[in-house]
Amino acid sequence: MDEAGEQAKVRVLLLEDSPQDAELVANRLERAGLPLEMYPAHDRASYYGQLGARQYDLILADYALPDFDGLAALEAARALDPHLPFVFISGRVGEEVAIESLQRGATDYVLKQRMERLVPAVKRALKEADEHARRRHVEQSFRESEARFLHVINALPQMVWISAPDGELTYTNKAWLEHVPPKTRTWLDPGLIHPDERAGCAASWERSLARHTSFSCECRMMRRDGGGYRWQLVRMVPLLGSLARDGEPCVEWLGTATDLQEQKLHEEALRTAETLAVSGRMMASIAHEINNPLESLINLIFLARLESQENPRALAYLDMSENELERVSTITKQTLQFYRDPATPTEIDGRSILEDVLRLFSTRLTARAVRVELTAEKNVVLTANRGEIRQVLINLVGNAIDAVSRGGTVCLSAKQVAGQRRETGASAGGTMSEMVEFVVCDNGVGLAEEKAERLFQPFFSTKGAHGTGLGLWVSKGIVEKHGGSISLVTEPGEGGKWTTATVLLPRDAVDELHAGQGGA
Ligand code: ADP
Ligand code: MG
Q1: For residues 312 and 317, what is the distance between their CA atoms, to the nearest angstrom?
Q2: Over its length of 520 residues, how does the chain's per-residue pLDDT go in tens digits?
Q3: Which residues contact 391 (CB under 8 A, 6 or more apart)?
Q4: Ligand approaching nearest to the C-alpha of 440
Q5: CA 11 to each of CA 22, 39, 40, 55: distance values in angstroms, whole numbers, following the listed order
Q6: Contact 407/367 with Cβ under 8 angstroms?
């Protein structure tokens, strides 16, 4: 029924062969003040005609007509609209007739002998029809909202499920079906949750089952089709309120799992970086502590040698001890180099510092017949801590020589380029400026990619007892302190392939060095 008030008339189809009876019915309804619009029909043909002509709010029909049967009229009306109220008005007395008509779906049955029942029957039929229509409307919008809700849940990247207290799943969304391994029965399935986190999750679940509180746990969940484990944040919330009847324990739990994998990897990387920084600092302080007894040891060996002139075996042992001590000494010096107070920056000539470094290695280079190519433009100058830059180049050239076998080649170059200064505490953002580029390359053994990732970590060395694994780590620290960058491109295979170490330094690193001093 329309709610627009008086204009909304109730359309009634009245099937009645007797004109007097029809008049009587219309009169009664009119007197009751119902806002009706009557459409009369008196036989089969006119009934079907009217029925097809428009929509009605109510049908009133005589039970028996000369050429027509009231039940057939009812059937035709029901076929058109199963919810349309249909009331019989009949002169025929008999319970069976009334019962049959109601059984066949009539709304009510009024006897012509008791016409005072007509108006209440019509009112009730209209009211019921109205209520039905409202209910259908509510149901329809409920279905629509449920469909929309499911649509949203299925569009979520998170896995969503509803679980009974025993863990049995009563609902799972699309993401769940896509991601969990087939045959997963509960959210705590041993095939789903990583064994390391299963007990913890189960304990949280038990606790909140007892208290009806929500909980979260982090765990790795297995992906279907060999996707491996991924970290998830699982959250379980009891569905209380309307869904669990008053006083009864809650019957269902809503679970969600949000992927944490990327976040976890990030945290892990941060932790590793922190550990490395801490171990670096620790190492520096240990190196510092070792330095003093080291000096004493070297002096003691010197004295012991004086006392052992007559004993060649003791002298040989002392030589060996001295060699080993030399190694320890190198390690501590390299470590301390990075942390030592910076010397005053001075102007450095690119070519001359490279020549200087080569001179240091001249014996080793000749002994292994390594070919050296030095190319450096004229007037490549930079302002930096000479001792530290020298240390960096010594480390790189030393590595290059270690990498080549007899007759290999090591190339050195220095040139001026335009490049990005590294961000430091004082100068925000990388700025373009004049830089000096040192390159050290060799055609030696190179290094496999998976190992190359660790080149700049302290203690990473492939040289066994001959390596400390500190050269590149220390070099990186020095170069970055100067606002520069260092990289090493390598691949395994001797001869044809080149390993290239590149150091980029600002032409004038004074600002960076002062900033570093202030911060330290
Ligand atoms: P160390 O030389 O004491 O091992 P470094 O920090 O100088 O320590 O170098 C770390 C590792 O990096 C070396 O052990 C080596 O495996 C690799 N590496 C460095 N430079 C080269 C190079 N030019 N060619 C091949 N591998 C290199
Ligand atoms: Mg080295």
Answers
A1: 9
A2: 444 445 578 999 999 999 999 999 999 999 998 888 999 999 999 999 999 999 999 999 998 888 888 889 999 999 999 999 999 998 876 778 788 888 888 999 999 889 999 999 999 999 999 999 999 999 999 999 999 999 999 999 999 999 988 888 989 999 999 999 998 989 999 999 999 999 999 999 999 888 888 999 999 999 998 889 999 999 999 887 545 445 565 678 899 999 999 888 888 877 776 666 677 677 777 777 787 788 778 888 888 888 888 899 999 999 889 888 887 877 777 666 555 544 678 899 999 999 988 988 888 888 889 999 999 988 899 999 888 898 899 889 999 999 998 889 999 999 999 877 766 544 445 567 899 999 999 999 999 888 888 899 888 899 887 777 888 988 898 899 899 999 999 988 877 789 999 999 999 887 777 665 543 3
A3: 334, 337, 474, 475, 478
A4: 1
A5: 15, 7, 11, 8
A6: no
Of 440, 370, 382, 464, the closest CA to residue 409 belongs to 370
Atom of ligand 1 nearest to the CA of 455: 12
Residue nearest to atom 4 of ligand 1 (CA): 461
Q: What angle do CA 39, 40, 41 make, to 5 degrees?
A: 130
Q: How far is CA 137 from CA 78, 80, 144, in A?
A: 20, 19, 10
Compute CA 27 distance to the chain's CA centroid, rounded to the nearest angstrom: 74
Please give the radius of gyration of the chain, using alpha carbons only, rounded to the nearest integer: 47
**123/57 Cα distance (integer angstroms):** 12
Pairing status of strand 58-62 against strand 86-90:
parallel
- Indicate which residue's Cα is closest to atom 19 of ligand 1: 399
Q: 403 alpha carbon to ligand 1 midpoint, in Å?
A: 8
Distance CA 314, CA 299 (A): 16
Most informative mutation of 410, 472, 478 for ligand 1 (most atoms within 8 A of CB): 472
* Residue 353 contacts residue 376 (beta carbons within 8 Å): no
> Which ligand approaches the C-alpha of residue 439 most closely?
1
Compute, in angstroms, the gap from residue 395 CA to the centroid of ligand 2. 5
* DSSP 3-state of 279: helix
**Nearest-ligand number for the alpha carbon of 403:** 1
Please give the DSSP secondary-structure letter assigned to residue 425: S
Integer distance in angstroms from the first to the last C-alpha of the chain?
84
Q: Indicate which atom in ligand 1 lies nearest the CA of residue 403.
A: 24
Pocket lining for ligand 1, CB < 6 angstroms: 395, 399-400, 403, 442, 444-447, 455, 460-463, 467-473, 490, 499
Compute how many other C-beta atoms are within 10 angstroms of the C-beta atom of residue 505: 28
